[in-house]
Amino acid sequence: MAKRPFFQSYLVRPPKEIRALESRIGYQFKDWTLLRQAVTHPSAGGGNNQRLEFLGDRVLALVVSENIMREDPEAPPGKLSVRLSSLVSRPSCARIAAEIGLADAVRIGKSAKPGRAQLEGAILGDAIEAVIAAVYLDGGLTAAREVIGRIWAGLMAEVPEASQDPKSRLQIWAQARRQPPPQYRLRGRSGPDHHLLFEVEVHLESGEKASGQGRSKQAAELAAAKTLLHRIEPENG
Questions:
Q1: Confidence class of residue 234 from pLDDT cuts 50, 70 and 90?
Q2: Per-residue model confidence (pLDDT) at position 218
Q3: Among 48, 121, 180, 237, which residue has the fewest nearby CB atoms (within 10 Å)?
Q4: Element (H, E) at 226
Q5: Which distant-in-sequence residues (6+ apart) come within 8 Å of 77 by Cβ?
Q6: Three-point CA angle 207, 209, 210, nearest 5°
Q7: Could you tell me what percentage of the chain is helix, strand and coil, using 3-state DSSP and rounding each to the nearest 5?
Q8: Are 162 and 79 in contact (CB under 8 A)?
Q9: Is 0.90 surpassed by the pTM of this model?
Q10: Cα-flanking dihedrals φ and ψ of residue 179, to 5°?
């Protein structure tokens, strides 16, 4: 990592949690106060990370989009959208935040008192995007690319979402288009108790829907999701 300017290194030394976070992401800030702002939740008062989170979301999407297009140069837009949505989703961001120990540096107001699930979800998800924005503002797009490439490497190397079950893929498809999760409705069941056949309908907010059958409700939901995926994304369904 590049050395910090003299006045930052010796006259105004960053807190130990900031130095530790810099080490974990592999980037040393010229202006470490940007990183401190990135890990400051609105409940803590003062300069917080909301605007940085807004910017970091866009920087992350750009860099990950570049990576997945390079990773699969023949992939159609629909497949790329699903992959992008998975990699930059709130659960993925929260996972990366946990992997780099971001919770140790996040500053939260005493009145907020977040539960464990909240800390590991929305708060950390927003904070990691704010950290990316801070790197971008401090070191430019090249620095942001390097940091994202480093801390997202493990997630990027995992099996693409296209190989997951149809329900997961359909939910990611909807999320990528800013739609709520697909809704499943049991339309009926038939046959004797020891050999029931369930029929389920799934529909999206945008109006697309499909039905599926199975020997259990879950199997029918999977069949319905698979049918709908085939209709809306033939190359991936």
A1: low
A2: 85
A3: 180
A4: helix 217-232
A5: none
A6: 170
A7: 60, 10, 30
A8: yes
A9: no
A10: -105, 155
Q: Are 148 and 63 in contact (CB under 8 A)?
A: yes
Burial annotation 119-145 (CB, 10 A radius, 16+ → b, else e)? bbbebbbbbbbbbbbbbbbbbeeebbb
Contacts of 40 (CB under 8 A, 6+ apart): 46, 47, 48, 49, 106, 107
| Token pair 């992008």 in the structure block, residue | 84
**In sequence order, what DSSP letters do the residues of 162-218 get, joined into one string?**
GGS-HHHHHHHHHHHTTPPPPEEEEEEEES-GGG-EEEEEEE-TTS-EEEEEESSHH
CA 235 to chain CA mean position, Å: 24
Give the active site residues: 57, 129
Instruction: Give the separation between CA 75 and CA 60, rounded to whole angstroms.
Output: 20
What backbone phi and psi angles, to 5 degrees, belong to 217?
A: -65, -40
Q: Which two tokens stand for residue 16?
A: 């130990």
Higher pLDDT, 45 or 149: 149
The per-residue pLDDT for range 88-109, each reduced to its tens digit, is 888 888 889 999 999 889 988 7
